[in-house]
Design brief:
The protein is α+β, with helices and mostly antiparallel strands. Helix content is 26%, strand content 29%. It has helices spanning 44-49, 51-62, 71-80, 125-131, 135-141, 156-160; strands at residues 2-5, 8-11, 16-20, 22-24, 40-42, 84-90, 93-104, 110-119, 146-149. The longest helix has 12 residues, at 51-62.
Length: 181
């Protein structure tokens, strides 16, 4: 953020924080199967208290998503610990959220996948994207080799590539039933 004072621009630091809505139990790692998700105490009451705010952001995110991303499914996944929710705050004010999960690919690489990313309108996107660095230590604690982010929105490559992300593939899907069911 830059402010102008008397003709001089002054760069002002923004205090950005990502706050997890879960607490580690005994520092155990997040597992890949839903049956082993109990290494974290999910703060269900906090998730439910902020759900109306989160769901509004998810509705916007879902406009650019595919797959089963219905609001009830996301809420159930958050409460079950299949998705982990982090709230973003800039100078103490809510500015968005990110959900993550641990995935494993065929090469046995563990990934911390960014599933949903919502940045509230009016928030400097770069501040929030820089704040994603806060997820790196968590990903490493989970034994992840990489973080990944996929989206249907083409513009993200301009932001993510300078941060060190590499475009690894583009996914196309085909509906095999096309209304035949």
């Amino acid at each position: 953020m830059t402010e102008v004072h008397g003709g001089n621009s002054v760069k002002q630091e923004v205090d950005f924080k990502l706050m997890p809505l879960f607490t580690p139990i005994n520092g155990m790692r997040l597992a890949n199967s839903r049956h082993d998700q109990y290494q974290y105490k999910i703060e269900s009451d906090k998730i439910l208290n902020c759900w109306s705010t989160i769901s509004k952001g998810l509705e916007i995110v879902h406009e650019f998503s595919n797959g089963d991303m219905s609001l009830p499914k996301v809420l159930n996944d958050l409460l079950a610990g299949d998705l982990l929710l982090w709230l973003g705050f800039a100078d103490g004010k809510y500015c968005g959220f990110v959900t993550v999960r641990k995935d494993m690919n065929i090469n046995a690489n563990n990934y911390l996948s960014i599933v949903h990313l919502y940045i509230k309108q009016g928030t400097d996107k770069q501040i929030f994207l820089n704040g994603l660095d806060n997820l790196k230590p968590f990903a490493k604690e989970q034994g992840c080799h990489k973080m990944r982010f996929w989206t249907l929105r083409k513009g993200w490559e301009r932001k993510l590539i300078p941060m060190g992300f590499k475009q690894s593939y583009i996914e196309y899907t085909l509906d095999l039933y096309r209304g035949e069911i």
